[in-house]
Design brief:
The structure is a homotetramer of 310-residue chains. Chain A has seven helices and 17 strands. Chain A has 310 residues and is an alpha+beta fold. Chain A folds into two domains: 110 residues, Orthogonal Bundle (Helix Hairpins), CATH 1.10.287; 153 residues, G protein-activated inward rectifier potassium channel 1 (Immunoglobulin-like). In chain A, the strands form five sheets. In chain A, strands 4, 5, 6, 10 and 13 form a five-stranded mixed β-sheet that branches. In chain A, strands 7, 8, 9, 11 and 12 form a five-stranded antiparallel β-sheet that branches. In chain A, strands 2-3 form a two-stranded antiparallel sheet. Chain A is elongated and about 90 Å long. At the A-B interface, helix 4, helix 5, helix 6, strand 9 and strand 15 of A face strand 1, helix 3, strand 3, helix 6 and strand 12 of B. Chains A, B, C, D: One of its GO terms (biological process) is monoatomic ion transmembrane transport.
Chain lengths: 310, 310, 310, 310
C-alpha cells in the first residue's frame, strides 16, 4: 500500500526521465523549471490571464500608453476630417489644432464631453460616437481587469529559508516551518512533502512521498513546523548529509488550503535542495504569551540553534 | 484509530505549548487570540482584503475623504496653471477662483464635464485628460470593491450563548444549538467540536475531538441542537463541573457548509469556556406547526429550563 | 453500517418532531416549509442577497423608482438653493423651474452634464459635486448587482411531475426522471433520495435513505431515470399504495452537480408525496437516433404507459 | 467490486439504448452528440450563458448593432418631439435634423453630453433622462458580460490526435498524451478513460472503466502520456484491431483539474474512435534538458514511430 502510493506519486508530471545532476524541478517561488516550445500562438494566448497576472507597474504602464496611443490615433482622424468640423476650437497653428483634436479625443473617450469643443457634421460625429462607445467598452474591460487582479486569492505563504535535521522524540526529523504573514485566515491547511533523488545507476529520478507528523491542520493562525520523522520506514533512513548531496536530493513541498477571505482554495509550492538542508540545527520557539494573547514573532522564522542529533 | 485522530487533531495550529491558565484560543466571534509581529510591511499588506473587510462606515468615509483630497490636489494644480486657462470661470477673489478650480476638478474626475468651465491651453488640458482617466480608473476600482464587498458569503450563524449538560438518552450530553438567521440556504452543514484542557502536570494543553450524535446534515433550514453524548469513550467522562473549570476547558466549534446563495463554501467558528457551560439545564423546544408550516422561534435559542441529570 | 447511515440521515435538519399528518417538508420547487420568526432585523438582513434574488421586474422597478426619487430629492435641494444659481435655466413658472432643476439633477447623477444648465456659486456646486459622486457609486453598485444576478448558476433541473412504481428487472422499482433543459453542461451529477414516513405510534417521522440503481453519473446531457429497486432491503418493501398514503410518505430528492458554465457547484431539490406516486405505470422512452445524433424529446418527460407490476 | 464500479459507470448519462453502429457519443472537442427538443423557450433560455459563451466577433457585432439600433430608436423619438426642442441644432434638411437627433442620442446614451445640442422642454428632457439611465444600465451589463467572458477558466487541453497501442513493460498498453499549452498551472489533474463497445447480440452498448497506470498527478507542467496497461483484467484483453472496429469502440476521456489562474475547477473531454487508434506505434519523447531547464516540444505531441508489439 505504501509502496503503491509512492508509485502513484512517482513522476507526478515533473518528468522522471531527464532530470539529471544539478536539476531543480521546482524553484523556491513555486514555479516549475519547465518550458514549453512550439505552441501555436493562438493556443498559448491567454489575454486575460496575462493582464491579470502581470505586475502593477506594467499594468498601469500599459493603460497609460494605450490611452495615449488611442488619443493620438483619434486626434489624427479628427485632423484629417478637419478641425473646422469641431466647433469652438481656438488653435491657430497646425500643432495647436492637432492638440485641440487630441484633447477633444480625450474628452470623448472618457465620456467627459465638456462641449467647449464639439463635433459638427456627419464625419466628425460618427467618429465621436464610435470613440465614446469604444471608451465605455475599454473602461468596462478595465473594471473587469482591476476586479480580476484584486479578487485573486493573494496568499503568500512564507517558508523558512532552510530546512533542518533536528532531534524528534527519540529519533531525528526533517523539519521546516511556515507562516501566513497576511490577515486572511487559511483553513483546512494540507501539506505534502516528497523527496526526489537520482537513482544510483542512471539519470532517472525516484520520487518518494514523505510521511508527516501532521499532514493537515484545521486552523493556521500561527507558525507551523512541518516534521517528517526519519524512522525505519522513511526513504531518508540511514542517508547521510553527503548521500543527499550526491543523490542531488530535492524536497518538493505543496500546500493546499481554503482562503477564508476569497472563499477559494489556494495552493502554494516550494522546494529545498540538499544544500539548503542543515544538520544538527533546530528552530527556536517563536511564540510567547502577551496580555492574554499568543504572540508569534514572524521575524524569527529562520532562527535556529545548534543541537546534538540522535 | 480514534486515538490517532485525536493525535492528529492535537494542536491544530493553535499552539499547545504556551496556552496556560485563563487563555482563550478562539474568541466567541471566531477570531483567534493570536497576533503576529515583525512581518515586513509588504508581506502583510493586502490592500483589497482590507478595503473589502472594513466596516461600511469606514469604507464610505475613505471614499469621501479621498474624493475631497484628490479634488483639493487637482484644484491646486489648476490654480497654479492659472484659472485664466479655464474658460468661463466667474470667480473674482482668489478664493472664488480656487473654488471654481475645485468644482471644475470634481466635474472632470467624475467625467461629468458640464463645460461651463473648460480647459484651454496645453497645460490645463493635459491635467484634465489625466484627471478624467484617473477618475475612470478610480471608479473601476470602486466598482470592483463594492462588488467584492457584496459578493462575499455573508453568513452569520447564531450560536446559543451558553452550552449545557443535559440528559441524553440514558446518559448525559454536552449540548449547544445554532440557527442560520438569514434567508440564504446552507447545505451539507458539517460541524466539528473539540475540547482543549490544561494538562495536570504542565502548562501544555491537550486537544480532544468530541464525537457528535450527528456530525453532518444535508439541509439546515431550522434550529439544530448539537449533542456530544458523554459516554465512556468521551474525554468528558467522569469530569465534574469543577474539574472543567480547574482544567480551564475550552470547547472549540468549527462549522463548514455550502452557501447556496453565493455558491461558495463558508466557515464559522466559536468557542465555549467552562464558565459558559451550564449543568442541569436543557434547551426548550423552539419549533411548532402553524398553517401547515413549521415555525421556528429564533428568539428562544438561549431559553433553557432546569432538569435532573442522569 | 446501513442502519448507521440511515440513523445519520434521520431528521437532517428538517425536524422530526412536529411533522404530523399532511405535512410536506419540502415543496416541489425545493423550498422548505419552514419559517423562522423573532430574528432581529439586522441579523436577518442581507441586502445584496435580496437584490440579487428578487425578480427582474421588481429589480428594474426598484431602480426606476429610486432614480425618480433621488432626482426629486436633489431637484428640491437645487430649488431651495435657487434656480438662479443654475446658469442657462429658461423656466419661467415655478413648475418649469422645478423641472429644470429636476432634469439638471438627472444630467448630474448620470454624469451626462450637457452644460446648458450648470451650477454657479458655492452651494449649487457642492450639491452637484456630491450628486455626481453619488451617481458614480450607485452605478458601481448597479454594475455589481447586475453581474451578481447574471453570474449566479442558473440551473433549472426539470423533474417529472410524478413518480411511478414500475417493473425493474424481476422486482419493482420506484422511479422518476429528470432533464437539464438548458445548454450548460452538468457534470458529476449526484442524486440522493430519502423517504420520510410517519411512525405508527406517534406524530414523529422516520427518515430512510433509498438505495439507487445509480447514484452518480459523470455526464448528464440526456434524460435520466432514477431507480430505487424495491428489494428486501428497501424500506418500501411490502408497503402498498395505501400504506404509503396512510403513513403520509414524502420522497425527498436532492441533486448536486458541477455546472460547467459557471464553474460552480449547484444544488437542486424536489419532493414527491404519496399521492404523486403512480403504481403500474412506466415512463416511455424519449430518445431516438436522428442524423447520427441522439435526440431527446423533453416534452415526453411526464409520458407514461400502463404496465403490469411484478 | 471492480464489476460493481463498471456497473456504476455503465451508461453514465450517455444513453446505452440507442447507440448503434457508427455512433459517436462524444465529439473530439468534448461536446455531446445529443440534442434535446421540445423544451419550452423560457426553460431553455439562458441569456447570460449565451452572451458569455458566444464568439468574440459575434459578441462585438451584437454590441455594435445594438448601439446603432437604440440610437435609431431614440433619434426617431427626438425627431417626433421635434428638433426645435433640442437647442443648438444646426441641421437644415430633415435628414440633417435626423442626424443631429441621432448623434445627440449617441452623446446621451454614452453620458458624453457635449452640450452643443441639449434638450429643452419637458418631453425631450424626459426622454434624455431615460436614455442616459438606460445607457448606464447597458454599460453596467456590458461590464458584467466582459468580466464574465474573461474570468471563465479558459483551459484548452491539447490531446494527441491519435491514440496508440504500444509496448508497456512486458505487455502492451493503450496510450495517448496531452499537454496544457497555456501559462496557467493545472494542479491535481485527474483523468478518467472508459471504453464503450457495441454488444455482440444487440444494438445496446457496454461501458467499461479502463484502469490507468497513473490516474492523478499533482502538477501538470509538462506533457503527460496516459497509459492503460492491457493486462488480463483489461476489457481490451485479446481484442484485435479488427474486433474494436467491428464493436465500434469509442474511448471516452474526461479530465478534471484545478486551474490555479482562476482558482476554479476545470473539466475537459475528448474521445477516440477505433479508427483513430494506431497499433504498433509509440510516441517519441518530447522533452530535453536545456540550460538547466526541461524543455518540452509541444509540436511533437502527435509524433510517433513504429514499434513491435509484445
Amino acid at each position: 500500500m505504501a509502496k503503491n502510493e509512492k508509485e502513484k506519486f512517482n513522476d507526478f508530471g515533473l518528468g522522471d526521465k531527464s532530470s539529471s545532476d544539478g536539476y531543480r524541478a521546482l524553484n523556491k517561488d513555486g514555479t516549475f523549471n519547465i518550458t514549453r516550445t512550439n505552441i501555436p500562438f493562438f493556443e498559448r494566448l491567454n489575454f486575460f490571464h496575462s493582464l491579470v497576472t502581470m505586475k502593477w507597474s506594467r499594468f498601469f504602464g500599459l493603460i497609460i500608453i494605450g490611452y495615449f496611443i488611442v488619443n493620438l490615433f483619434f486626434a489624427t482622424i479628427y485632423s484629417m476630417i478637419g478641425v473646422e468640423h469641431l466647433t469652438g476650437t481656438k488653435g491657430m497653428t497646425p500643432f495647436e489644432q492637432y492638440m485641440e483634436a487630441f484633447f477633444f479625443s480625450a474628452q470623448t473617450i472618457t465620456t467627459l464631453g465638456y462641449g467647449r469643443v464639439a463635433p459638427l457634421g456627419l464625419a466628425a460625429n460618427i467618429v465621436a460616437a464610435i470613440e465614446s462607445m469604444l471608451g465605455l467598452l475599454s473602461f468596462a474591460l478595465a473594471t473587469g481587469l482591476l476586479y480580476g487582479r484584486f479578487s485573486k486569492p493573494n496568499t503568500k505563504i512564507r517558508y523558512s529559508d532552510k530546512a533542518v535535521i533536528a532531534p524528534y522524540q527519540n529519533i531525528n526529523g526533517f523539519m521546516f516551518r511556515l507562516v501566513n504573514p497576511q490577515k486572511n485566515q487559511l483553513l483546512e491547511v494540507e501539506i505534502n512533502v516528497s523527496l526526489s533523488v537520482k537513482r544510483n545507476d542512471s539519470d532517472l529520478r525516484n520520487f518518494y512521498n514523505l510521511e508527516l507528523e501532521r499532514k493537515k491542520v484545521m486552523f493556521f493562525p500561527s507558525m507551523w513546523t512541518i516534521v517528517h520523522p526519519i524512522d525505519k520506514e522513511s526513504p531518508m533512513y540511514n542517508l547521510s548529509k553527503k548521500d543527499l548531496l550526491i543523490k542531488d536530493a530535492e524536497f518538493i513541498v505543496m500546500l493546499k488550503a481554503f482562503d477564508e477571505s476569497s472563499s477559494l482554495p489556494v495552493y502554494s509550492r516550494t522546494s529545498y535542495k540538499a544544500d539548503e538542508l542543515f544538520w544538527g540545527e533546530k528552530f527556536i520557539y517563536a511564540a510567547k504569551r502577551e496580555n492574554g494573547k499568543l504572540n508569534v514573532d514572524v521575524g524569527l522564522i529562520n532562527h535556529t540553534e545548534n543541537v546534538d542529533l540522535n
